[in-house]
Design a protein that fits this description.
The protein is α+β, with helices and mostly antiparallel strands. The protein is built from 21 helices and 27 strands. Strands 2-1-4-3-7-6-5 form a 7-stranded antiparallel sheet, with helices on both faces. Helix 2 packs parallel to helix 9 and helix 18 packs antiparallel against helix 21.
């Protein structure tokens, strides 16, 4: 508190005059110079400290305001986007009604691309126009709900356009086609709500931004709903800030293009031309590099840079809904102007003091030196106090006040300093309260996120509202179908019985969304309501009011991403004070956070139920598949054994008849016996293949691996296939005799080679088949044809033919079970299991099988199995 002097004291001039009577002029000059120099130094220090303090406070204030503005703009644009989505739903319903339920009751003019304003639609567009006119009333209602929206409209893919204001139809320019406008094309490409930056409106010739969304009926786009926002409205309504005469706000995209700013006009840009936007990043200032990086990473911040020809603070924060950025610009001069004004005031007082002092010097005498010393002390002491006070304010002690010793110039300076300190303290206190509230909401959100159960989340919401934000009592309502139901409440630690009575009363008398109650009004309007007279208010349910007994409370809607989830009510019953507008704003912020938390809890609970259901279904399906697989393997093994006995008898008897009765049977009988023998062997091979596949899949296929020489096994396989080959195809072996033995089952190795040679014979009509074997010691992955061989000591055996070859599609099906590539076209019999079994056998040997083929040239099947030599030096990669 400042102390006011009771008596009027002499001013500086009077005191100097008194001193001049008793001191000498030289002494007065020395003392005066020292005093004035001390005043100047104190003034410089105080101004410097004040400027630094103001700059620091301005950065924090601008950052907070930029975030608040971004949230405000985002909510405003999100509200418009939700209205567009509402109109999309209404339009879908209108265009889905049966023909007999449509009546063109609004003969308003509409715009038809290529024709202009039209009242009577052509026959082929009569149904489309009738359906479009059904939504004009809803368009007008939605536009009137939001003062930011200047125009709403529907444009169909046939070129029909209806608007909420039919007068606009008559002012659209010739050649206007909504389907060619950027908002139509962007919505059509995005297949969802999208925002279009600044462009020139065809009707008003003013700058607009637009949100548009496609309307799909039966998975077909029938048109686009759009709503325009005039920049003049946004500039006067949304971009208005209290930041001095030179401060302003603007909106830009992530590439630095300024979309909205004060005094932005269309100029000479036509409606059908692209509006040239100013780009903030086109500057040589190095501070723009970090600004550009933060904006593209959706980070808020504040920076000092050269802008608009001067030194400016630029604070920025992202808008989540549209992906734009809100920025606040404040000149540095406006920030430090209070300190400079104080400095100028001090300087003026100094100048006046110098003039008075010079006047006194003219009439001073030798006695002035004694009085001048006392005068210097009376002048310097308040300024020293002023300097100390400025330093304390700079260190954060904003409650610092100076004692006013008089009503002279220095006293008035002290009064100005105290007023500046009080103003700073009030602003900082307001910022601290806002920061504490937002921190409490953030802590509450984090605590709710850690809760997994939906019921636990709902129970904690009223409790945390009271504990963290200072309310005494809180009640949570949820909207379920058409009922507004109480789900939880918190009346304080000593009021559990009153809390239970209130919830029983609320549940016994359900509130419907169509009822004339405060709760229904809050949900339908999506706005907070303060009730200061609940005992006389016609919309208050008196049965609940009788139990709660409060005199003032506030209710705020809980909004989800797409719909209203419920509402929350709170009061200060225990504290006995009325609810203020600031309390309502605080509850609205809390309700916005709660809406997202409740939606996430609902989603998490639904996801848990779905995962449990799907897990059970998959477990049952797995059990059935495993049982079916066991039955299949048992059946194949049983039927294969049952068929092999008669087939062996057939093959044996036919062979005996061919060998022993050859001289006495005729040629036709010989051919029949050979056919029986051949087909019997084919069936036996088929049964053996099926039995092998069944054993492999059942995991009962045993290998008897041993060190095996390669050449004898390959030679045996080639001899067998050579005896069965009737085509003009030669078979050749290219194997070095000094190859080390392989670690294989020799019987299965012979089966692998026979299967590969048999496959080559089937698809080679002439030429040759070459079987090669080489040793490959691989230290790192090495390409062999189109395949990479992993590190190891390998024997690589390949079967190369000059057959028809295969394309990429045939290669993709080559090793699938019961698949025969080109077999049906060439009339070749086979089970389609040979190559599949071959791959399984190679895999069982821990080997690798691959193929290289070219149509018309031939194929090369290769497989690699480790040698029996374990001493080869291999470097694993």
């Amino acid at each position: 508190m400042t102390s006011q002097p009771r008596n009027v004291r002499f001013g500086v001039q009077a005191r100097v005059l008194l001193l001049a009577l008793g001191v000498s002029l030289p002494a007065l000059i020395i003392v005066g110079w020292l005093s004035l120099n001390g005043i100047s130094q104190a003034r410089s220090a105080a101004v410097k400290q004040s400027e630094n303090t103001l700059l620091l406070q301005a950065e924090n204030m601008l950052m907070s305001r930029a975030i608040d503005k971004a949230e405000l703009y985002d909510q405003a644009l999100l509200s418009v986007q939700r209205q567009v989505q509402t109109m999309v739903n209404i339009t879908q319903q209108a265009f889905s009604r049966p023909l007999d339920r449509l009546a063109d009751t609004r003969p308003d003019p509409f715009w038809l691309a290529g024709s202009g304003p039209t009242l009577i639609p052509p026959d082929q567009l009569r149904l489309t126009v009738a359906r479009a006119r059904q939504i004009t009333g809803a368009l007008q209602s939605n536009v009137n709900l939001n003062p930011l929206i200047s125009l709403g409209y529907l444009a169909t893919k046939e070129g029909v356009m209806v608007l909420d204001d039919v007068r606009v139809v008559s002012v659209l320019p010739d050649g206007f086609d909504a389907r060619k406008r950027p908002w139509y094309q962007a919505a059509e490409a995005a297949n969802g709500p999208t925002w279009i930056g600044t462009y020139v409106d065809a009707a008003t010739k003013q700058l607009n931004i637009t949100v548009s969304a496609p309307v799909n009926v039966n998975e077909q786009m029938i048109g686009v709903i759009g709503m325009d926002l005039l920049l003049t409205t946004i500039q006067s309504d949304v971009l208005r800030i209290d930041a001095g005469t030179s401060g302003y706000a603007f909106v830009m995209d992530h590439d630095g293009n300024i979309l909205i700013r004060p005094e932005l006009e269309a100029g000479n840009t036509r409606w059908d031309e692209t509006f040239q936007k100013q780009n903030l990043f086109e500057s040589d200032d190095p501070n723009f590099a970090s600004l550009r990086e933060n904006i593209r990473n959706n980070l808020p911040g504040v920076t000092r840079l050269q802008l608009d020809g001067g030194d400016r603070y630029l604070a920025y924060s992202p808008m989540r809904t549209v992906g734009w950025v809100v920025a606040l610009v404040l000149p540095i001069d406006d920030v430090i102007s209070p300190a400079r004004d104080a400095s100028l005031a001090i300087e003026r007082e100094q100048q006046q003091l110098r003039r008075n002092f010079l006047a006194v010097l003219l009439i001073a005498s030798g006695l002035i030196i004694i009085l001048a010393t006392g005068l210097a002390r009376t002048i310097i002491r308040p300024l020293r106090e002023l300097e100390v006070g400025a330093q304390r304010i700079a260190s954060g002690q904003l409650d610092q006040q100076l004692v006013v010793h008089g009503n002279d110039e220095i006293g008035r300076l002290s009064l100005s300093f105290n007023q500046m300190s009080t103003a700073l303290r009030e602003k900082v206190d307001a910022l601290e309260v806002n920061a504490q509230q937002m921190a409490a909401i953030n802590e509450t959100s984090n605590e709710l996120k850690r809760l997994r159960s939906l019921n636990t989340v709902l129970d904690h919401i009223p409790q945390l509202l009271c504990q963290r934000l200072g309310f005494d009592r809180a009640v949570l309502y949820l909207l379920r179908d058409d009922l507004i139901e109480v789900v939880s409440a918190s009346f304080g630690p000593n009021n559990y019985e009153l809390e239970s009575d209130f919830m029983r009363s609320a549940l016994s008398d359900p509130i419907t969304i169509e009822s004339d109650t405060i709760e229904a009004s809050v949900i339908k309007s999506r706005q907070a309501v303060i009730v200061d007279n609940p005992w006389q208010h016609p919309q208050v349910i008196q049965s609940k009011q009788f139990i709660s007994g409060g005199d003032s409370y506030v209710q705020a809607p809980i909004l989800g991403r797409e719909k209203v989830l419920g509402l929350i009510s709170a009061d200060y019953y225990e504290q006995g004070r009325l609810v203020t507008i600031q309390d309502a704003a605080l509850l609205l912020n809390f309700a916005d956070m709660v809406g997202l938390t409740i939606e996430n809890a609902f989603s998490f609970q639904n996801l848990e139920d779905l995962v449990a259901q799907r897990t059970g279904e998959l477990r049952e399906a797995l059990d059935r598949a495993q049982a079916a697989d066991r039955l299949k393997s048992q059946f194949l093994a049983s039927i294969s054994h049952e068929l092999r006995t008669p087939l062996n008898a057939i093959i044996g008897f036919s062979t005996v008849l061919i060998d022993e009765l050859s001289p006495v049977i005729v040629e036709e009988q010989r051919e029949d016996l050979e056919t029986i023998n051949k087909n019997g062997r084919y069936l036996l091979d088929l049964i053996n293949d099926i039995l092998d596949m069944a054993r492999i899949e059942a995991g009962k296929f045993a290998l008897h691996r041993e060190a095996t020489a390669v050449l004898p096994v390959v030679q045996s396989a080639v001899d067998i296939m050579h005896g069965l080959n009737s085509k003009p195809v030669t078979m050749r072996i290219d194997i070095a005799p000094d190859l080390p033995p392989m670690d294989v089952d020799p019987t299965r190795l012979r089966q692998i080679v026979i299967n590969l040679i048999s496959n080559a014979v089937k698809f080679t009509d002439r030429g040759q088949i070459v079987v090669r074997a080489t040793r490959r010691i691989v230290h790192e992955a090495t390409p062999i044809g189109s395949h990479y061989l992993l590190p190891g000591d390998w024997i690589v055996i390949s079967v190369q033919d000059t057959g028809i070859g295969m394309d990429a599609e045939a290669l993709s099906k080559l090793f699938q079970e019961f698949q025969q590539v080109h077999a049906s076209a060439r009339g070749i019999l086979g089970s389609g299991l040979g190559l599949s079994i071959t791959r399984r056998l190679v895999d069982l040997h821990d080997g690798d099988l691959w193929v290289d083929s070219k149509v018309g040239v031939g194929s090369t099947f290769s497989f690699a199995i480790a040698t029996a030599n374990t001493q080869a030096p291999i470097e694993q990669q």
